[in-house]
User: Fold these one by one.
Assistant:
Number 1:
Amino acid sequence: MTIKGLNEEKVKEISNLKHESDWIRDFRLQSFKAFEKLGMPKFGPEINLDFDKVVYYKSDINKINNSWGNIGCAVRDEFNNLGVIESESKMDGIGVQYESEVIYHNMIEELKEKNVIFTSIEDAMDKYPELVKKYFSKIVAVGENKFTALNGAVFSGGSFIYIPKNTHLDRPLQSYFRISSKELGQFERTLIIVDDNSSLHYIEGCTAKEYSESNLHAAVVEIYVGKNSICRYSTIQNWAHNVLNLVTKRALVEENGTMEWIDGNIGSGITMKYPCSILKGDNSKGTCITIGVATDKQIIDSGAKMIHMGKNTKSNIISKSISSRGGNATYRGKVLISESATNSEAMIKCDSLILDKISKSDTYPVNICNNDTSNIEHEATISKISDEVLFYLMNRGIPEEKAIELIILGFVEKFKAELPMEYAVELNQLLKQSL
């Protein structure tokens, strides 16, 4: 089934295909009305997109499987070649989305016994409607921007996770998103709730085939971190260069809670992504460690937002960017310490590495402190590969190309150190391929 172009009837058609409840269809229609009224973002790179040419829904698989043997050979081989099937043995659970639908989901029995829920957002809406309604679209508003409204109208796939109180997972949960069709838009909606005194590490991976036509990826992620809980959300995005990657990610953190974003952006033609933590509870913490790699005229416009509301809150943003061959890697971020967030601290550190004369890096920070007992520190560096360091390495028998590679890998060491070993190895390979 394929739905191309967008109007109210096609929004209803998507809802009918999924046999949705009235409240979900009404949410879609409300979102579509907001989408029609809103203009394109007035900041960041220019986005040239013909919405009538986008495929908003495509899937030939209409049910979730828990065995790879039930999935067609061509699709199964695609994920096998990507290493997704092999990675499942290292996780407590995995979900896989292909085009517009989640096609595979599995979780170890131990988590089911602990009442952990890990499924697709549609399955959760059907089986746990009251739990979903309590959190769905509460921290990302329908009409926040044109692309959150678009996601609300046509969302399909994405993960739902609920970690009950006093529950800790030994290994991560993982979701993987794949686009394989021309002009397809992927609009997953992810909702994560980590209840009080619990913890979760969630890993997301995404890839797409390369086409001359543009693909669109406009996801929305909402995360709720309970009292004394920890959530870590790790992403390595490696979309093809024809993908427009426009994502909204936000977390609400309660008292003594911790939210950690580990965010890597290697692919896409344009990325606009700024993971946000709202530090609502006293003594809550937010961390965002990002890396953006822009090559071959890519535009990676990324960063983070930290909103301090509770007392004694702390945030830390570390942004690393590399640009080469005409790429533009930009940091865009906001830190706001509100009047109520007394005795709070924020630290922002931005480091950019430019590898040639035709590439660039920009920084657009907004830092606001509204009380006199709190503190914001911001430091930034922009540098090129040092001739002295390069000479030192080459003088010890290391070829120039290998020496540059070592310098780059050292530059991103802080980011790699936060990843599971297999993902750090994958990041090394992606950097070598792209640079």
Number 2:
Amino acid sequence: MTHSVAVLGRRPALFKTVADWKLPDVQLTIHDSPSEALAVFAEGTGALLVFDTTEYRRSRHVVEKFLSLRGDADLIVLGEPAVLAGLQNKPHRGALRRLAPSVPGDELRLEVERLLKLRDVRSRSGIVGRSRAVNQMIALIAQAAPLDVNVLVTGESGTGKELVARALHQHSARHDRAFVSLNCGALSEGVLESELFGHEKGAFTGAIGKHDGVFKRADGGTLFLDEVAELPLGMQTRFLRALETGEFTPVGGSRIERSDIRLVAATHRDLLQEVEAGRFRQDLYYRLRVVVIPTPPLRERREDVPILAQTFLAQENEAHGFSVRGIARPALELLSAYAWPGNVRELRNVIRSMAVFRQTGMIETADLPEEILTGQAPGQTANLPVPLERGAPGLEMEFLMASLLELRGDVKRILNLLQGGEQVPVPFSGQVVDTFAGESGYTTSPAGGDGDLVSAERALIERALAATGGKRRLAAERLGISERTLYRKLKKFGLH
């Protein structure tokens, strides 16, 4: 692909330097007018701007204007640190680099080539994100891909380990040969051996013909073994020998076959702990971890969630002919705040589900799944005390009241125990009180068992419906619950 690179400056020496660059697949333009240079990036198609701030009185203004443009173009600033003071954390999807104005031309060219290479890796890999963690991962891929060495990709399930493996293959010298993948955790030991090394006809019941394993099918290319920690110990010995010598024997065969592969292995486990526990061979461990590339969990790169969400939504629109315009800001904020235990895979499935149900218009807060609204993944339990703010997203008022009532009961039982079983007064008013901002009234429910929560819930819902003129979506937002939860409560209390 061709990259559009612009150079903005007023020093003839810089113009002479860049004119001598021989950069393949690069369309290079040189400007002395900021407006002309920025026009290259106005439509979001430019790749990189080199801005020499020398002789520009409003250089900071130019930088701020560039950062406000859409797209993900990278920026190299030749200037003093003050030019970028306070701008490093300004939201921008591209890289932001500063070099001294006196940087040698060869060093500047190498930085330009490095950033363009990272862009190429990113665009061809399908890896989405501009967080520091993702940028570090992309840099490791770019460095390791040309080297014909084993790579171990680590990270939680759903973080995109196979995308990393494919990116390594695409940017290696083997890119025009086969990329073969095998999940070691999905197969029994007998089937796994056959899938790795193949089998001869008649090797076992059902072997009606010769079968080539992944070692043979990946010959000359890349073999990706996912969940390599699930290899049985006995299989690890044979696998290590095949990896070291390139020689193996199919199941039921006697002839030695050879294969030249580049291995990329992946696991969500801590392999060193597996070695210490005796479940993984130490020599195989060191054979695999020549280069290690960690894939960050989504909770450690929350700034990428809006980018990922919009990207997945666009893909769903294109794949199914939907016309969902986007995701409302409050919904994006809730998506970014969620912990995503299933990582990118979970986010993609959530976006797919909402797109299927919405199909047109905007995805709003009420369209989000319950776990996103409450901030709790299925199976998690909430803990009190927690800092609360009126109108805090994801806070379900009925959960809060249930927790307070349970807490009151716990306090009673503890005090009773400390007093030797005697009933003692508890400093609790016996009321659950809810007040809404901007309203003078309040609703109370007398204490006394399960009826406390039921009456309090009903009173809160009736109050919210009255305040919103019966509009259920607004009432749900006011209560801090999803619209689906509100419908369920209305049916429960006979209010629908």
